[in-house]
Design goal:
The chain contains 20 helices and no strands. The chain has 471 residues and is an all-alpha fold.
């Protein structure tokens, strides 16, 4: 997610900034959990309390918040909308149903969580986390509904697969920023990242998912489950509503459905390969960079889905348009909550809370790997942004990187990446994205998603420290 850059909105001291951050987060949690406010309103009020407590002018706080909202909507919001359109066509055409049937036929019982973790990790290699969520969640919900397996037992492994790759393995933005800042060897970082990703996905995914599913019962949110289309000649649940999509269709097939999902992934992967292998400014690299932009890649995915899923399912142009338009109203609440989470985070960043953590770590006399991890953890918890945590932590430990050999510098980049994933909570837009898609309360999201992210962070860092003993 992009981070809006601005001058600090306050000149408050460290103590005041820490107090402001604590009060802002506490207000958000209390308003949602105790007062039962809608998260969108709670995040707005929490940002206001944070800014005013930090000594920022009201106008500056509003400007910072709205800039964060705009930045989040312009990045994550567009991805959610386009991904939801692909998901709607998958559902209405029967394509998602075919994929679910294929998964259910091949994997049963205890093998399902492992299958979902593997699929998510594979897809997550070139994919932004938010894109992976909007593409995979409909499949996760349908698999859980069809098999009767706990939603968390399947959903946590899928989220873990996406999150681990996002934080530890290039070409994701965070690892690439760390590699560039530390002048680390990209090949070594990629190799070590993949080595660490395997045990981390296993522990945070199937193992933790099986454990937590028994302790936090989550009902499958009916509003998020793609409707099963009726067979030709059957009655449409929409009744006689002329504006409802007509679901009499012929099955477009599993292969076209999978290829439609893979197109955005392939385009983004080609972009990553081009950036790694081609000289900057060349025509071929520029073309792949543009095609691999997440918004562009998903747009091409929607256009392909209109043919592979809409036309092949027998929809005419009006029916296809109706399905695409119908995908947007259900996600309006998610978009607003995620956007407000981005605004709250931006007030934290612009107030200088991240700088407080960074300044406290500058003179710490500890191992470079531990320092990089702890600084990233502190900034991640304070600001909610993995990208900000990675950029800041890499900048702080960059002088130390010059004294290390190539393998150690690569491990330092991964230590920072691990720290940047620590304990996602109410100041992270990803927290709200997962909460809303899985229909959980704030408390349930903390017990599941936040703990899973912490496990990923700790296990990933533990793997880095083990590798440091042998390289």
């Amino acid at each position: 997610m992009s981070v809006y850059a601005a001058e600090a909105i306050t000149s408050a001291g460290s103590g005041q900034l820490v107090l402001a951050a604590v009060l802002g987060i506490a207000v958000v949690v209390l308003l949602i959990a105790w007062a039962k406010w809608h998260p969108f309103l709670a995040l707005i009020v929490g940002a206001a309390v944070l800014g005013l407590t930090a000594g920022a002018a009201a106008g500056a706080t509003v400007k910072s918040f709205t800039a964060g909202v705009g930045s989040t909507v312009g990045s994550v919001g567009l991805l959610i909308a386009l991904g939801s359109m692909i998901g709607a066509l998958l559902a209405e055409s029967g394509g998602a149903d075919g994929i679910v049937n294929a998964i259910v036929r091949r994997f049963h019982g205890s093998a399902l969580p492992w299958a979902m973790a593997g699929v998510a990790a594979l897809i997550g290699l070139p994919l932004f986390f938010e894109v992976g969520v909007v593409l995979l969640v409909p499949i996760v919900l349908l698999v859980a509904q069809r098999t009767g397996v706990s939603l968390l037992k399947i959903g946590i492994p899928a989220l873990a697969g996406l999150s681990v790759l996002h934080g530890l393995v290039p070409p994701h933005p965070g690892p690439l920023v760390a590699v560039a800042s530390l002048n680390a060897d990209l090949g070594l970082t990629l190799a070590f990242g993949l080595i660490c990703a395997i045990p981390t996905v296993i522990i945070a995914g199937p193992v933790f998912g099986t454990f937590i599913a028994k302790r936090v019962p989550i009902a499958i949110p009916a509003a998020r489950v793609p409707a099963a289309p009726v067979e030709p000649g059957g009655a449409s649940p929409a009744g006689d509503d002329a504006d409802a999509p007509v679901r009499d269709r012929r099955n477009p097939g599993v292969v076209p459905a999978v290829l439609t999902i893979l197109l955005p992934i392939v385009l983004m992967l080609l972009r990553a390969v081009a950036e790694l292998t081609l000289d900057e400014g060349t025509t071929v690299r520029t073309v792949f960079e543009n095609l691999g932009e997440p918004v562009v890649a998903l747009l091409f995915g929607v256009l392909l889905a209109m043919w592979t899923l809409g036309k092949r399912a027998g929809f005419d142009r009006a029916q296809t348009s109706s399905v695409l338009g119908g995908a947007l109203p259900p996600i309006a609440g998610i978009l607003l909550i995620v956007a407000a989470g981005g605004g709250f985070k931006q007030v934290l960043v612009d107030a200088g809370v991240g700088n407080v953590v960074a300044d406290a770590a500058k003179d710490a006399n500890i191992s470079a790997l531990v320092l990089g991890f702890l600084v990233a953890v502190g900034i991640r918890v304070a600001t909610g942004s993995a990208t900000v945590a990675t950029i800041t932590a890499a900048g702080i430990v960059a002088p130390l990187a010059a004294t290390l050999d190539k393998p150690e510098v690569a491990l330092l980049a991964l230590a920072i990446g691990s720290g940047s994933l620590f304990f996602s909570h109410v100041n992270d837009a990803g927290f709200w994205l997962v909460k809303e898609y899985f229909g959980m309360t704030v408390g349930q999201t903390i017990k599941t998603w936040s703990v899973m992210e912490t496990i990923i962070s700790v296990v990933g860092f533990g793997c880095v420290m083990l590798l440091s003993l042998v390289v």
